């Protein structure tokens, strides 16, 4: 282990340090100074403190260029991780902006503190290439999100959702850990790259396959891939809407990024083969199976939903299936950078879109609930928000020229080109395209209610605050611009991947 | 008898399986939590055994972190039970059926 000074460490961990201090500040400001103030003022103050910390962290991330790999991958800082961290903090900021008018709790300081801690966990997750820190960061994220899910004390379903999320998460964490311990035993190291080196030549040891499946189970839970998805619909429906937005966006971004690293770096050499009629055991066929199951079940179950939050949850499961294609594209070491670029672009745009969608659902919820009926005639009650909803839904469905289309395009191209010379994963890509056509049906169902159906007699116009209008408009604008000019995001991603030497 | 790595691994796999069985068949949340702990401790045992037989201390370091994380996890889990109990007056998983499909 090479020696390093604490000042360097502070330099590398500046953004995380800022966010941890902000989480304490949010707690103290709320509990100390604002205890007797009216609730809206406390939300505003807490949100202000959090936003300030987030902006500082983004400033630090974009201006301080540091590159290091401390203690064999315990902390890896390179342009790629910095970029993903900027995305994570941006998602935190949008979530905060959407929670300012929340009424589900009086524990404002704790709420913002947990949002920040969850984000810090995600940032550490992105920065680790070591089994130990991956596990600890995963748990920090998960534990914060369990509490956030159960944060709505007034709702009957919130605590139940939190508990289900916790139980599934606990089992998944145990599986991950057992799998990782077996891998540590087989490889004699906790560093992902060393694991790959030490495992090379072992072939398909049965114990290794067991370990691989267990690790995939754990991460499959985090990204909500079928058959480890059972928590997702309940958690999305029961959680306070801004918390659900963070679970659906930031947590997904970080989990997919680290999942990709674990698979592509840690299990390099035991990819196997998932090409049509060329099956060979390894992680590619395992993930291909998960992808098929997720796309199939996610899209078909979403059609039957009446609660829009549950619909978004099943759509998230389907999208996890598409994103797994990005991981599969990384199975070829020579094409790894393409797969990573497509994956990061997709999760970023998907995260922004889904936060926006949850923001709209939150506004509709104020008029009575989140079922499809509550969307009836929404365009006449809140035209601007309805237009934003249209942008988000069409982007999720993958309609050009929105970001969702280009995300899918790059992802599918990368997956199809992963094995040059033969058809490789083309069967999976064709299946994914067919499934995205299915998904159009339920996204249009929501839009049909909002734009075509007549509003109910007693329908009231929802109260929309300025901050919500601004956030939703910004998100919709981002989805349109990133779709029309994908190079604005893809360029930096490609540069970062090249600089990181991924 | 000479106790080797495989003996430790068999015990740890048994503990893990028992824990999983407990999570699946038990109905009381507190017992489920205990079973969850058993699964984590099975992993701990495997880590310590591997660490000793690989002559590499990383595994033992990891165990300390896992013990801490497991404690935090149970704290959060118990808090969730309290939150649920206030609303429903139950600690049984059969009663968690408000949301389905």
Question: How is this fold's topology laid out?
Answer:
The complex is a heterodimer of chains A (502) and B (101).
Chain A: H1 6-12, H2 14-33, H3 39-63, E1 68-70, E2 75-77, H4 79-99, H5 108-126, H6 131-149, H7 156-187, H8 192-199, H9 206-222, H10 231-238, H11 241-248, H12 250-266, H13 283-303, H14 308-329, H15 336-365, H16 378-381, H17 383-397, H18 403-416, H19 426-451, H20 466-484, H21 487-500
Antiparallel strand pairs in A: 1-2
Helix pairs in contact in A: 2-3, 2-5, 3-4, 3-5, 4-5, 4-11, 4-12, 4-15, 4-21, 5-6, 5-12, 6-7, 7-8, 7-9, 7-10, 8-12, 9-13, 10-11, 10-14, 11-15, 12-14, 12-15, 13-14, 13-19, 14-15, 14-18, 14-19, 15-17, 15-18, 15-20, 15-21, 17-19, 17-20, 18-19, 18-20
Chain B: H1 5-25, H2 29-54, H3 58-88
Helix pairs in contact in B: 1-2, 2-3
Oligomer classification: heterodimer
Output the CATH topology of chain B. Helix Hairpins
Task: Kindly state the number of beta strands of chain A.
Answer: 2
* Gross morphology of chain A: globular
Q: What number is the mean pLDDT of chain A?
A: 89
Judged by helices, strands and strand pairing, the structural class of chain A is mainly alpha
Large-scale geometry of chain B: elongated
Question: Biggest sheet of chain A, open or closed, and with what strands and sense?
Answer: 2 strands, antiparallel
What order do the helices and strands of chain B follow? Answer: HHH
> Could you name the ranges of chain B where pLDDT drops below 50 across 5 or more consecutive residues?
none
Please report the total strand number of chain B as a whole number: 0
How many strands, what sense, and barrel or not for the largest sheet of chain B?
A: none
What share of the residues of chain B does DSSP label as strand, in percent?
under 5%
Question: Which range does the strand content of chain A fall in?
Answer: under 5%
Q: Please indicate the count of domains of chain B.
A: 1
| Proportion of residues in helical segments of chain B | over 70%
Biggest interface between chains? A-B, 41 and 45 residues
Task: From the alpha carbons, calculate the radius of gyration of chain A and give it in angstroms.
Answer: 22 Å
Average of pLDDT of chain B: 89
As a whole number of angstroms, the C-alpha radius of gyration of chain B is 17 Å
Which bin fits the share of residues in helices of chain A? Answer: over 70%
């Amino acid at each position: 282990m090479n020696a390093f000074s604490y000042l360097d460490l502070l330099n590398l961990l500046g953004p995380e340090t800022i966010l941890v201090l902000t989480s304490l500040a949010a707690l103290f400001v709320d509990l100390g100074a604002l205890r007797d103030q009216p609730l809206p003022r406390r939300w505003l103050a807490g949100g202000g403190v959090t936003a300030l910390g987030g902006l500082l962290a983004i400033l630090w991330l974009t201006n301080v260029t540091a590159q290091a790999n401390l203690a064999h991958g315990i902390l890896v800082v390179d342009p790629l991780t910095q970029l993903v961290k900027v995305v994570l903090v941006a998602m935190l900021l949008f979530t905060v902006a959407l929670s300012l008018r929340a009424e589900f709790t009086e524990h404002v300081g704790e709420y913002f503190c947990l949002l920040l801690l969850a984000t810090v966990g995600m940032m550490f997750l992105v920065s680790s290439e070591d089994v130990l820190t991956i596990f600890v960061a995963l748990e920090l994220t998960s534990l914060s999100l369990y509490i956030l899910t159960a944060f709505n004390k007034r709702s009957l379903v919130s605590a139940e959702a939190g508990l289900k999320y916790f139980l599934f998460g606990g089992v998944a964490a145990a599986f991950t850990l057992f799998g990782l311990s077996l891998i540590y035993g087989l490889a004699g190291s906790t560093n992902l790259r060393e694991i790959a080196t030490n495992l090379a030549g072992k072939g398909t040891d049965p114990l290794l396959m067991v370990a691989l499946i267990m690790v995939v189970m754990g991460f499959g839970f985090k990204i909500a891939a079928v058959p480890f998805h059972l928590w997702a619909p309940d958690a999305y429906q029961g959680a306070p809407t801004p918390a659900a937005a963070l679970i659906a966006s930031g947590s997904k971004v970080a989990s997919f990024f680290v999942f990709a690293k674990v698979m592509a770096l840690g299990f390099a050499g035991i990819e196997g083969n998932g090409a049509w009629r060329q099956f060979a055991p390894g992680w590619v066929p395992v993930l291909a199976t998960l992808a098929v199951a997720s796309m199939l079940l996610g899209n078909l179950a979403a059609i039957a939903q009446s609660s829009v939050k549950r619909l978004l949850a099943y759509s998230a499961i389907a999208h996890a299936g598409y994103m797994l294609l990005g991981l599969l594209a990384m199975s070829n070491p020579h094409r790894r950078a393409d797969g990573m670029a497509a994956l990061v672009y997709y999760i970023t745009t998907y995260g922004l879109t889904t936060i926006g969608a949850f923001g709209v659902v939150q506004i509709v919820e104020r008029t009575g609930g989140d079922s499809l009926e509550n969307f009836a005639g929404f365009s006449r009650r809140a035209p601007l928000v309805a237009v934003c909803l249209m942008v988000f839904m069409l982007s999720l469905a993958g309609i050009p020229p929105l970001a969702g289309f280009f995300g899918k395009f790059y992802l599918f191209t990368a997956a199809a080109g992963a094995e040059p010379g033969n058809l490789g994963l083309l069967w999976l890509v064709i299946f994914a395209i067919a499934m995205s056509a299915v998904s159009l049906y339920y996204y249009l169902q929501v839009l049909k209610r909002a734009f075509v159906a007549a509003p109910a007699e007693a329908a009231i116009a929802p109260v929309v605050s300025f901050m919500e209008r601004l956030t939703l408009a910004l998100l919709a604008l981002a989805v349109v611009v990133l779709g029309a000019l994908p190079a604005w995001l893809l360029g930096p991603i490609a540069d970062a991947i090249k600089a990181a030497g991924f | 008898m000479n106790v080797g790595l495989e003996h430790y691994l068999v015990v740890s796999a048994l503990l893990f399986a028992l824990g999983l069985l407990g999570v699946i068949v038990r109905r009381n949340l507190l017992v489920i939590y205990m079973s969850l702990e058993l699964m984590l401790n099975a992993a701990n045992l495997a880590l310590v055994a591997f660490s000793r037989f690989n002559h590499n201390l990383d595994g033992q370091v990891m165990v300390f972190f896992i013990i801490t994380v497991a404690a935090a996890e149970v704290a959060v889990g118990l808090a969730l039970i309290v939150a649920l109990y206030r609303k429903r007056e139950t600690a049984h998983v059969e009663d968690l059926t408000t949301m389905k499909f």
